[in-house]
Records
---
Amino acid sequence: MRLSRYFLPVLKENPSEAQIVSHRYMLRAGMIKQSAAGIYSWLPLGFKVLKKIETIVHEEQMRAGHIPMLMPTLQSVDLWKESGRYDDYGQEMLRISDRHGRDMLYGPTNEELITDIFRSHVGSYKDLPLTLYHIQWKFRDEIRPRFGVMRGREFYMKDGYNFDLTKEDALHAYNRHLVSYLRSYERMGLQAIPMRADGGPIGGDYTHEFLVLADTGESEVFYDSAVTDLTFGDRAIDYDSVEQCQGVLEEFTSKYARTDETHDEALFNEVPEERRRVARGIEVGQIFYFGTKYSEALGANVQGPDGKQSPVHMGSHGIGVSRLLGAIIEASHDDKGIIWPEGVTPFHCGIVNLKQGDAEADAACESLYEALTAAGLEPLYDDRKERAGGKFATMDLIGLPWRITVGPRGLKNGVVELTSRRSGESEELSPEAAVQKIVEIYANHQTGRGF
């Protein structure tokens, strides 16, 4: 993409309404624009990152054997009354009526709707196990929406639901989701710590939240610092293996890590004092096992091997796709702007032409642009007739991981400058070598081209 042809309405000044880093930089980098309180339009740059995150979530869910689908944003209230949960959400639930006076709601979650789909089409244990998920817009009427996409009223979320014959099978689904989430977050450049949490209005005896440590987090967290040494890496996992998935869960949850809602001071004090940490965390996902709560209420039964009908065991599993974008920025930025991890960057590399209109510099930039594109990458070429300082400031603000700077002086020596946004280190390379290095870097990252 050539910047002269792209829609990137960057702001030079910090917006007064932005209280945290991610909100400030998303507005300044032209990623979002507020439409109403807690509701945003996603502008091209923000939309690209949102789709990169969504792609990773889809890929890891399908890798784990989960099946994508799509449910509507609007739901009838009848199912919610049938489950007995209609009043649990209170004023956070947006209730509306259609032109015929039928009561509707804008879905904050989908347990009732997915259970109705299941009970309408599945009647035998032979169709289990089954996990269905979708990524869809949700709405919760927060009393005080703030912090941009971190606590908005409208948000983009992956929610998945497993249906199993027994509790043991359902707990395997729980463990399988924990593994798939760990892999997803690491691909996004995040370390998300699974922490024992409270079930809230969704319910459930087993639940873990995934939190990213950040000063602006809304949750107070207590943890053993040893959990921050754990990485999922590129280990191969057989998602059908109960033992492997259980082993990962035990590895990542054996150290103390809890939110303030479930914090146990006595247990925390058993952690060696030098490893005890109290911090803030941003919730970016949660997994639940809630047994037969919804299947019993809504009559989601299957015939077992013994010929008897029994309610299925269920769980739900959510990832805040739009919230993740803010969490990544909170975890990865400096005073100049965003620093995107390679896995979710909107463009893989920036190209800065220091002397637009110079025949040699223009030709070198065009050649770099074509070579990177031919290699399957998306460069962003700043071809504007703008001063160099302004071009560098824009690149720093939008946070592309790598920048190639092209100028007449370097070209006389046959080199361009390749700069890492994260470290700030630069090296002079031939244009061909710079392209090859960028290609090799991204060969180690699974990145979709997105939109």
---
Amino acid sequence: MEWDLGNFINLLQAQAGNPFIIMGLIIIATFILEDPATVGAALVAVEGLIDPYLALIALYIGIFVGDLGLYGLGRLSSKYWRVRDFLKRKGMVATSNWLDGWMVQAIIGARFAPGMRLPTYTACGLFRLSFTKFALTTGIAVFFWTSALFAVSYLAGEFVVMQLGEWRWAIGIGLVVATIFLPRLLKKLTKNMAFVTKQKAMTNN
């Protein structure tokens, strides 16, 4: 059987009568890549396959649970004696104290910085920082960031549907791909620019 974009759309449309299945798929998608999942959920909502509010609820649940899972992974790792001994080193104690003092800023910053959520949230659990503070901060960050990204994607999706018709899914997939690769590309370009600037400074000296 040939599998193409049309078959994928038909699959989603077949589940339109059962929003809980689509919500489950959205939740699973957030565990893989949360920002692309948010964009994808918005586009699915634009197509009318799920109510936008239900799509948002699924995103909140999936992303928040994923964040708590990263914290739990770090907390679980801290129970092993080798890890405990490693955390007692002077440098690690200093890092723990710093992260404890800047925990809110670190959590919010990691939400927007590509690739920083895993090490930052896991470290919060590893250093056994306040779970209540972590959960409250990440919950607020998830609500605002996910809501904003979903709203922008939903409005853009409505425009795409009205203006581009049958091309809407191709453009939608392009948006998802851009969400995956653009932050990484920008991060790489920033590093390259910093390296070039450093080399120029060394040459001038």
---
Amino acid sequence: MADERLIAALDVHTMDDVKRLVTTLGDSVTYYKVGMELFYGVGAQVVTWLREQDKDVFLDLKLHDIPNTAAGGICSLMRLGATMLNVHASGGYTMMKTACDRMHAEAAELGVKCPKLIAVTVLTSINQDDWRDMGLALQIKSAVVRLARLAQKAGLDGVVASAQEASLIREACGKDFLIVTPGIRPAGSDTYDQSRVATPTSALTDGATHLVIGRPIYAADDPKAAAEKIINEMEKVR
């Protein structure tokens, strides 16, 4: 009953933790997010192992550097076989376009399938007060849409954004643009450190293409049952 729109976040610490959770979830989940803490802790083996289990991988390392360095980093990560990679949109148009163009060129040269490349707009932990404290004048929603349009212009496949901005991005960037939304919490769940959250149903209704969900699954007493409950909710929106 897996739903390819669900990306389960592997916000765990060791390969043993990874194997335990992935085995527990079984066929219920086919797509996993690997973030900084796990990747920096165990290295590339986590991506290799997940691919050996026929799982898709969103390698969420949020590259942000000068164009040549970001492009080189993306190409190195591309060779690991991840399904989707990301950069920070705030790195600018030239950084995003350079990374995208280099990745596609290298994938073609190697004869491998090119991963999707998406851009982080504004982190879902940031609220309007945080935003104002950074001296940024635009409203968060306006900034997110501007960054999404910039990412699309640079040739990227989509963005990471709060579900609260999904409908605006969908309107601005069209039906084929990926919108990957973290900060998803089933009704009644704790929001933890996320400020801009949504339920699975509302996020998909507003235009999200993928939902990244961590704690409500891995911290549940029965992770598989929790994942399947979320999937059942997601299936109401197609």
---
Amino acid sequence: MMPSLPPQAPPAPGRPLPAPATTGPLPSPAELALEFPLPPESAERIARHRETVRAVLDRRDPRLLVVAGPCSVHDPAAALEYAGLLADAARRFEDDLVVVLRAYLEKPRTVTGWTGLLTSPEYGGTGDLDAGLRLGRSLLTDAAATGLPLAYEFVDPAFAPYVADTVSWAAIGARTVASQPHRHLASWLPMPVGMKNCVSGGLDTAVAAVQAAAHAHTLPAVSSDGRLTTVRSSGNRSAHLVLRGGPVPNYDRRDIARARAALAAAGLPERVVVDASHGNSGKDHNRQPGVVADLAGQIADGDFSLVGVMIESYLSDGRQDPGAGRLLPDLSVTDACLGWSRTLPLLDALAVAARKRAS
């Protein structure tokens, strides 16, 4: 964990506050897209991916959405190696699953800690947004070239215009789901957005976020030329609820039934994605297979409201302590993940369950 900053003495009465330190202007979204362009074939594929995910959420497509990948990307080369493995698996299971790569480059923090590759490309560094934006954009365009849809959690709304064109499924996390700017951002984003229940485990905040995102809003945004501008969103009808647990898990049949009831009471579609990690596994990656097995049973028994499953997965099993020395490229630096050899059987089990449900 990064050390906290020492307290600063307040300014003398009547004196202006000091200006914040800066390191120079950032590239505009248009400049970054010119430097790391999204090829037309990738852009067309992303548009198709978004529509496919919408079809799964609306149950026009009977397959199951599965979002799999590392808790956070810290090594682009290793992340692309993982993407290659997942892309092969996605083709194998494409009749039953819509597999999406978790490509998270921003990390929310309760107090302090590493905030992700986009904002701090050197783990433990002071932060280099210019280098992070370039490294992050490069990674996302390369990952999109694998043919996989990409998942992304939007933490800082200012960065959304730099990366949104590469993303097919988005998340608003448990720490930001109550935030009005994030709800308004979700109403503007051009892809389905999952709203996670807050860390307390309650559903009301996330359900309200789904409602808010469905409406049109006026919000500030960074324009393609880098200036702050006003945009009018049209509302995101594909916003939906993600159950990620809290102090206790919320993935069993009774929890799913309660989620359906909360959505129905709010006049929203009864569709739920369940995160097998975080509060639902007690942040113990070894419990994820048990969570997935329970969800597969519910799916096989015909629960069509359970439209998706999230799995924290990476090349190697577990996590590493960043303070122990040189970072290993294949091991998570944030939440512990299931290694690839333990992930593949879970995809197989979910495919079997989705096939049984559709039959």
